[in-house]
Task: inverse folding
């Protein structure tokens, strides 16, 4: 099992709909969790961070963390074509080192 | 957020030559800098972690004599790919952190290296 696992996609969502991105993680990943957005040929940019169980909302983005089930998700409401990118899930291990997933490619269709 | 500037954004070099990539924190002091490599459609792979004024810590499988990292000041770290080969062609990304272990690290723009 990969330490941070994501479906590579692509995930295709109509404009205006909710995009749901999921990530599962292993026991090694135990600290805070992050969602990054990466456009093609660009470096990642932080979208959301979440540290405790439950939901965290920021504008159109909601991160959800369930430590018992070892998954973290990102919901994007009112999806826009500009949201089309690869979304990387990452978590910190006990040494605070970031462990990365391979990313899910999201396509928002106008 | 804080700004990390990485240069050059793209470089093409001949096999056997060396290439230097710079990473600068523009508005904060970067006590720790990270160097990543990313192959197409793959995850970011941490190559090394460097703290200002000390030797870099390399991840397993990364050749320290091939990928020279210098973090001589609180605002600048460099990665030199020595004797580059086509298999070193990749997207290299730096990130910098100013605070403690769980503080956010900010990413540079990345460098696309192509070795021909």
Result:
């Amino acid at each position: 099992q990969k330490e941070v696992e994501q479906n590579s996609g692509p995930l295709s969502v109509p404009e205006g709909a909710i995009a749901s991105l999921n990530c599962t993680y292993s026991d090694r990943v135990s600290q805070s969790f992050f969602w990054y957005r990466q456009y093609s040929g660009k470096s990642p940019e932080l979208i959301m961070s979440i540290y405790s169980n439950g939901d965290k909302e920021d504008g159109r983005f909601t991160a959800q963390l369930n430590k018992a089930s070892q998954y973290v998700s990102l919901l994007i409401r009112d999806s826009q074509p500009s949201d089309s990118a690869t979304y990387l899930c990452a978590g910190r291990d006990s040494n605070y080192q970031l462990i990365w997933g391979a990313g899910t490619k999201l396509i928002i269709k106008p | 957020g804080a700004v990390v500037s990485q240069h050059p954004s793209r470089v093409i070099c001949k096999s056997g030559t060396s290439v230097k990539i710079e990473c600068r924190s523009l508005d904060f002091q970067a006590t720790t800098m990270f160097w990543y490599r990313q192959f197409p459609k793959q995850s970011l792979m941490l190559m090394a972690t460097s703290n200002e004024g000390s030797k870099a810590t390399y991840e397993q499988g990364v050749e320290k004599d091939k990928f020279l990292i210098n973090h001589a000041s609180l605002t600048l770290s460099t990665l030199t790919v020595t004797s580059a080969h086509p298999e070193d062609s990749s997207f290299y990304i730096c990130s910098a952190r100013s605070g403690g272990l769980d503080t956010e690290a900010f990413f540079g723009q990345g460098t696309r290296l192509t070795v021909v």
User: Anything to note?
Assistant: Chain A touches chain B through 20 residues (CB under 8 Å).
